Amino acid sequence: MIPQEYIQEVVRRNDIEEVVGQYVKLRRTGRTMTGLCPFHNEKTPSFVVYPDTQSFYCFGCGAAGDVIGFVRKYNNLGYVESVKQLASRAGMPLPEESDHEATARQRLLEINRCAARYFYENLNAQTEEATLARRYWKEKRGLSDAAIRRFGLGYAPDEGFGLVNYLKRRGFRDDELEHSGLIRRSERGNLYTIFRHRVMVPIIDVRGAIIAFGGRVLDDSKPKYINSPETMVYHKSRTLFALNIAKKSKAKRYILCEGYMDVISMHEAGFDTAVCACGTALTAEQAKLLSEYAEEVTLSYDSDEAGQKATERSLGILASTPLKVSVLSYQGAKDPDEFIKKYGRERFEMLLNGTANPTEFQLKKAKAKYDLRSDDGRLSYIREAIGILTERGVSPTARDVYAGRIAEETGVSKQAIVSQIGGAMHTAERRSRRQEQRDLSKEGIAADIRVPYTSSGESALAAASAARQLVAAMLQDAGQVPYIREHLDMETILVPEMRNVMQAIFRCADSGQPINLTALQQYLNDNELQEVGKAQAFNHATRLQRQDIDMYLERLQTAKPLDEKVKSMDDTQFTDFFADLGKKKGAHQPEADE
Question: I want to staple 158 with a disulfide (CB 3.0 to 4.6 A). Which of 53, 197, 316, 476 is the partner?
Fold first, then answer.
């Protein structure tokens, strides 16, 4: 293990405000910094950095930790790798330490590197199979030798053991091969490769490491694509294909495509900022990653129904980013690759420069659904169009312009449509306020606590809340630990995670370590650390005193055991029971929407 003194020094030398600020745009609010959470999709900032405790907490998704935890979660690194990265940033000598996770990660990356070389060598072999594969890349896809080298494209021969033997000769063990995502074990116990008779595309992360592969058949047989499963180095929801190349471009307008082949064809045609999501749909993590490199993104998905649905989903995800978004609309081809081959690069560039904004795209799609020659069709179109124009992000000027266009398309007066838009916006605002009231009614230090079935009633919820408050008190002042420990009956701690947190605090105190997130994370899992972060965040502005501690200790002692009624409840009844408690305590319950 890395000495705790070294870890604490790493944290001291890496101010969390500076480190987080490299990844998240922060705004100062009093003694804290706020920003959009990098770990979930949100439009209103709920991510808070606390410089005085060198910690962060998200009130939206619950992510919490210190600077090591942030780097670890954001970059998908192991704990030791995160420490080493921050140590290097601070100019500290790296610790002399053997880490199994880091070693396993490096071995896996080396397997991927060797596999990529194997696939590339097989593409250039003097065999009939290799000739067919080269013909696919060069003739069917129209790629140059330079593009094949740039993307490291290859070919997996039609046999099951070549890659296995190739990797074994290079010293990799059977268990390492099985965890690589490239090799499986048959029912008879033999190892074999999952990629056979396919052209191969390496997936490379932004640091240039090969983390996975995609394989496509040379014809139209099924399954057309096979992709590597997720491994300790590959998480498809956080990966953008070709970002390692696109990030080198001076252009800040990125083209978001549907698949690997589209991206490669785009680059071959000279559009060097083309990327695509790894997986079936764009994720919030991928959108945030994209926003770190791009200022504008154009969606260039296929023109079929699946592509249009993917466009709508992506627009929703990208709406929460600072990116300027536009949508490419084209006819005469099923995808960008076919369009470029059919009409040429220059015409595609003209198309790209005339892309529609998201509102334009959505209105056009809505109009195509209805027969505007009928009254019912016009009314349905107007209703859907108004819904689009009342969405967040549409400017008043744009609403006025589009209201005029809708009036011309439907024969309804612009004044009537503007009036309908105003009414719809008023209703949306009212519903938004009610939702905000609901959210506020659920907030509070005990709102999210789920006590086990071994205790119940208001006293159970109060006891669970009291345990969290005692944790907050010890984090604020380590001098309170002996007093709390002396007067605390651990049997009264209802929530198992909180019990583990208490024990971790006592272990730190016994060994003379600081009582902070950095020291505690060596004993706690992510859920337990989240509880610590929540306790600290909810009490950031309040200094807990000895009289507060006594009150919480008393609440724990007076917690009542579960009665027979609650013992027999299922999950739904249990949730309703605590909702009723909230009503009895006078919590405001908003009225239902009209």
Answer: 197
CA gap 418, 444 in Å, rounded = 41
CA 126-128-131 angle, 5° bins: 70
Percent of the chain with pLDDT over 90: 43
pLDDT tens digits along 389-400: 887 667 787 788
569 has pLDDT over 60: no
pTM confidence score: 0.60
How far apart (Å, rounded) are the C-alpha atoms in residues 258 and 275?
A: 9
Q: Phi/psi at 378 (nearest 5 deg)?
A: -65, -45
- Is 173 in contact with 201 (CB distance < 8 Å)? no
- The DSSP letter of residue 138 is I
DSSP 258: S
What interhelical angle do 345-353 and 336-343 show, nearest 10? 120
Q: Which of 116, 114, 112 is nearest to 231 (CA)?
A: 112
Burial class (CB in 10 A: 0-12, 13-18, 19+), 258: buried
E-assigned strand segments in 15-156: 27-29, 32-35, 47-50, 55-58, 64-65, 154-156
User: Distance between CA atoms of 502 and 275, rounded to whole angstroms?
Assistant: 47
| Cα R_g (the chain), whole angstroms | 29
